[in-house]
Amino acid sequence: MKQNTIYRKILLNRELGKKMFAVLIDPEKCNGRHLASMVAYLKISPPDFIFIGGSHISNSINNIIEVIKEEVDSSVVLFPGDASQFSDNADALLFLSLTSGRNPDYLIGQHIKSANIIKQSEVEVIPTGYILIEGGKLSSVEYISNTRAIPSDQIEIIKSTAIAGELLGMHLTYLEAGSGAIQPVSKDVIFRVHNSISTPLIVGGGIDSVEKMLNAYNAGADIVVIGNTFEKDFSKVSEFVNAVKSYNNKEEGTHNNNNNISYIHPDIIP
User: Fold this and answer.
1) Radius of gyration of the chain (CA)
2) E-state strands within the chain
3) I need a labelling partner for 193 at 20 to 30 A (CA). Which of 33, 166, 176, 265 fits?
4) Which range among 54-68, 184-198, 239-253 shows the weakest confidence by mean pLDDT?
5) How far apart are the C-alpha atoms of 93 and 110, rounded to whole Å?
6) What is the DSSP string of 213-239?
7) Using CA atoms, how far apart are residues 21 and 84, in angstroms rounded to an integer?
8) pLDDT of 78-117, one tens digit each?
9) How far is CA 257 from the centre of its chain?
10) Which residues contact 148 (CB under 8 A, 6 or more apart)?
11) pTM exceeds 0.70, yes or no
């Protein structure tokens, strides 16, 4: 396995107050002309990360990863729905444990199936606590994993689940409302989780506008993931990428004026 290059990047950006943006691509929904169009827009406006994965994928993901890596200047990170969705062509893998559910197959079972091939690969592995939160409709993750999302008003349970994942050694915490969620993860939930853990926080699901993305950042999200919105119109990618750049530039100016940036010494980064 590779050294923690991408995880180090996440930690350093977080320390500098720089927010990150990821585009989620489901290979089942992106092929042919759609793939060519997507790559063209991503090439012009590359996000920090491109997440590859979905709840159900029947085709190989190797080809799409190869195309993206040849054309787009973004780190490609696997966001697998199960053990079959692994490719050693990716830069990194979110090794997801569905800590909000009680199905052992998605807590450890799928991980055992893929452990040997992952260990032998050159792909960076990032253990990630994956917390599914009710987003207003039944998500594909709930259906496939046979688990229930945590009700969005059960903030203490959500917070405790995030803390438990961190104590178990997860390097990232991912709050997920589900693809195409009617309601994204609330600002209150993000804020409370952010203030309860020390691991970087990813938020996704139901974020279909720049305003909702900025709300997530302001509440404490380090990385925002958007996928469903771009499946309908990839030309919107540039709007979001530019909004993140503007947000970071504004924050950088604030930090510089206050002269309060602190830096992580490289020796303490895993």
Assistant:
1) 17
2) 20-25, 49-52, 75-78, 92-98, 124-132, 172-176, 201-204, 223-226
3) 265
4) 54-68
5) 14
6) HHHHHHHT-SEEEE-HHHHH-GGGHHH
7) 26
8) 999 998 899 999 999 999 999 999 999 999 999 999 999 9
9) 31
10) 101, 142
11) yes
Q: How far apart are CA 135 and CA 138, in angstroms?
A: 8
Question: Helix (H, G, I), strand (E, B), or coil: what is residue 25?
Answer: strand
Q: Is the pLDDT of residue 207 over 60?
A: yes
The β-bridge partners of 172 are 128
| Locus of tokens 């990618």 | 237
Q: What is the CB neighbour count within 10 angstroms for residue 232?
A: 8
CA distance 245 to 100: 32
Using the predicted structure, report yes or no on whether residue 263 has a pLDDT greater than 50.
Answer: no
Cα distance between residue 245 and residue 18, in whole Å: 9
pLDDT value of residue 50: 98
Contacts of 80 (CB under 8 A, 6+ apart): 53, 86, 93, 94, 96, 110
Q: What are phi and psi of 235, to 5 degrees?
A: -65, -15
pLDDT number for residue 160: 98
DSSP codes of every residue in 159-193: HHHHHHHHHTT-SEEEEE--TT-SSPPPHHHHHHH
Two tokens, residue 83: 């053990």
At 247 the pLDDT is 98
Q: Which residues pair with 150 in a beta bridge?
A: 133
The DSSP bridge partners found for residue 76 are 50
